[in-house]
Amino acid sequence: MTKRELIDTENDKRYVRRDEDGKFKKTVDVGRSLSADKRHDAKNDAKPGQGDKGDHKR
Fold first, then answer.
1. C-alpha to C-alpha distance for 10 and 1, rounded to whole angstroms
2. Mean pLDDT estimate for the chain
3. pLDDT in tens, 3-27
4. C-alpha distances in angstroms, 35 versus 2, 19, 30?
5. DSSP 1-58
6. Which residues sit opposite 17 in a β-bridge?
7. Which of 10-14, 45-49, 50-54 is the least confident region?
8. What is the per-residue pLDDT for 16?
9. What CA–CA distances, in Å, run from 11 to 8, 14, 17?
10. How far is it, in rounded angstroms, from Cα 1 to Cα 18?
C-alpha cells in the first residue's frame, strides 16, 4: 500500500492514496480525519504515512 499524500488546494486539504497507475484511489478530508482520530482510542499503532490503517498511540 502506498503512503498517503497531503494535497493542499486553496479551498481545502485532503489525504489521498494513489493506485499503481498514479490515479487517486482513496481521498479523505484532513479535518474530518483528524477529528475522527481524536474521538477514538488507539488499538493499533500505525506506521508513519499509514494513519488510516490504524491509530497513533499518544
1. 28
2. 76
3. 888 888 888 888 888 888 989 888 7
4. 23, 26, 9
5. -PPPEEEE-SS-EEEEEE-TTS-EEEEEEHHHHHHHHHHS--SSBPPTT-GGGSB---
6. 26
7. 50-54
8. 87
9. 8, 10, 19
10. 9
Q: Within a 13 Å sphere around the CA of 14, how many CA atoms are in the beta-carbon half? A: 14
Residue in this structure with the C-alpha cell 479551498, named with its chain if needed: 11
Assigned C-alpha cell, 18 = 494513489
Which amino acid is present at 31? G
Is the torsion defined by CA of 20, 13, 51, 49 positive or negative?
A: positive
